[in-house]
Predict the structure.
Amino acid sequence: MRRRTVLISAALLWGCGVAAMSANLSASGLPRDGELPFPAEYQTWPRFLTNIDKVDTKQVRDIYLNPTGAKAKPGEMFPDETTMVMEIYKAKESASGELDKSSDGKLAKDKLAKVFVMSKKQGWGQDAPDHLKNGAWVFSAFGPDGKPLAEDFTKCRACHAPLAQKDFVHRYDEYFEARMKR
Ligand code: HEC
């Protein structure tokens, strides 16, 4: 009985803290993939890495992370309540489908196509099967208008899951190297 009361009050406390940021919650009260709120202010956040060219998929990507995430030190995991946002732009192409490249070979951005988001908080992401667990990270995707997209989130998990040593973040090393030079 006592244990139950403690659990319930912990859940209530936790709920107050994040109620403002979580519009959509599963029955357990924890956000699942596809249920994160759109972080509308992300363009004011520190930049993680920008102008990542993806020639094969004809895209350019910019990544931001929230001020909480930017407190991480090299070699550490990102703190609780870190959010990372990846903008995926179409790369500019000519009418014949050739990619526009600057003299230094960089691609140019066309329209914003999608916004991918990952956020972590203790206790999140535990309903995923073991081989798809990404620590406490939860994934979501949005259109350029900020409306949620129904992506196949098992794909996000499958491709990020092998990076446990880097807190499931693909560009982990590159980020800290770039940050040291800034
Ligand atoms: C096939 C592998 C793959 C899949 C599937 C995938 N990602 Fe990623 N993701 C990457 C790679 C690689 C990067 C690093 C940036 C780059 O090179 O595009 C990345 C970067 C990110 C980042 C920036 C932080 C980081 O890891 O560097 C976020 C946020 C992100 N992905 C979210 C998602 C979401 C949400 C989905 C599913 C809707 C998804 N990803 C699906 C491979 C993948």
Summary: The chain has one domain: 30-181. The helical segments are 2-19, 153-160, 172-181.
